Amino acid sequence: MNPLLVKGIRPYGEGEPVDLLVRDGVIAERRSTVDTIGAEVLDAGGLIALPGFVDLHTHLREPGREDAETIETGSAAAALGGYTAVFAMANTDPVADNAVIVEHVWRRGREVGLVDVHPVGAVTVGLGGEQLAELGTMARSAARVRMFSDDGHCVADPLLMRRALEYSLALDAVIAQHAEEPRLTIGAQAHDGELAARLGLTGWPAVAEESIVARDCLLAMHTGARLHVCHVSTAGSAEILRWAKPQAATISAEVTPHHLLLDDDRLSTYDPVNKVNPPLRTQADTKALRAALAEGVLDCVATDHAPHAPQDKDCEWSVARPGMLGLQTALSVVVATMVRPGLLDWRGVARVMSERPAEIAGLPDQGRPIERGEPATLTLVDPDATWTVDAAGLASIAGNTPYQGMELPGRVVHTLLRGELTVHSGTVRRKDGR
Ligand code: DOR
Ligand code: ZN
Questions:
Q1: pTM of the predicted model, to two decimals?
Q2: Which of 2, 11, 261, 410 lies 20 to 30 Å (CA to CA) from residue 316?
Q3: Cα 159 to middle of ligand 2, angstroms
Q4: Exposed (0-12), middle (13-18) or buried (19+): which is 150, by Cβ within 10 Å?
């Protein structure tokens, strides 16, 4: 591979522009000017370099729902969104609850080669919530699974959750919980608030999430195991985490871009593109979640990228599947909700989108400093760009973006994975040259 000279970039948006010489997958030089003959030159004037983003929560839908997304199209969407590693949730069909499926996902991710695809293993057999899956076999497989989750479903049985946490200790793994007490969300269609009541939709109350968050924080303290709380959506969950986290360093939590930006006002459209689980909450919740992310009570942003085929989304609210696209819009939503209002600087963006998720998942070569000798796994961002979201122009097969037609700030221009440009000027560069 030819060396690559990245000219005039500002790491973390700080200080004077520098040149980065990328050779053999690493940052070989970082100086105010580097001159190298024979290097491919990337003019990065005006751009900011961040460590490549890591998404702890992606639904790639393969195997089973390749009409909504595949590992190939989802990887392209991820790379275009500035991601260099994603965690593919286990709620595929068949479920990723055994070594065969997780190895398939891992292998296919490697073949595509646009991002590191790490399969998440299911906690329970078939996501059934009754019997622990073979966590050890998945951990020892070629995919080396280190994150387990029944996402889409909650591990509701407290004894099973306790056992999963105990087993995870021996495997050096983390259990990611979709916090939803199912007995409190039977028939739930939307956030349990005024608007849902007026529309006659059964409510999904905040306490259904918060009671599980509280219980699992206590179980994490009791077992000493690593708990990661998926898609925190309420101010109350953030309060519980604010209390629990100082007592147990093994607890972490994520928030999605859509729970930072959108609220249950969206319900008035009755458009199922806004249906998601957990549901869009109140404006007071979005405000509390932004503050908690800025403070570090919430560790990171994770997309919960959830593509759905048209027949599952373009239908009545009550039968539509929950979920929305997120990979290609995540950075822009973080810029709109956190950077522009002054809640996070670009260092902070690096922390919540790359460094913390890499630490939580135990990825040694992601979320690294932008320094000489470190992997050239980077996202190069134009902080001043604005763009208008158009589902038809996104890489995903499905088109269920809630941001259709919205003008968003900040844009990923180039993405590098171990020195290779996976995205160049907003276009995917495939390994096979396609
Ligand atoms: O909205 C959601 N969609 N929430 C989940 O927990 C699962 C996900 C999906 O798989 O579509
Ligand atoms: Zn979930």
A1: 0.98
A2: 261
A3: 20
A4: buried
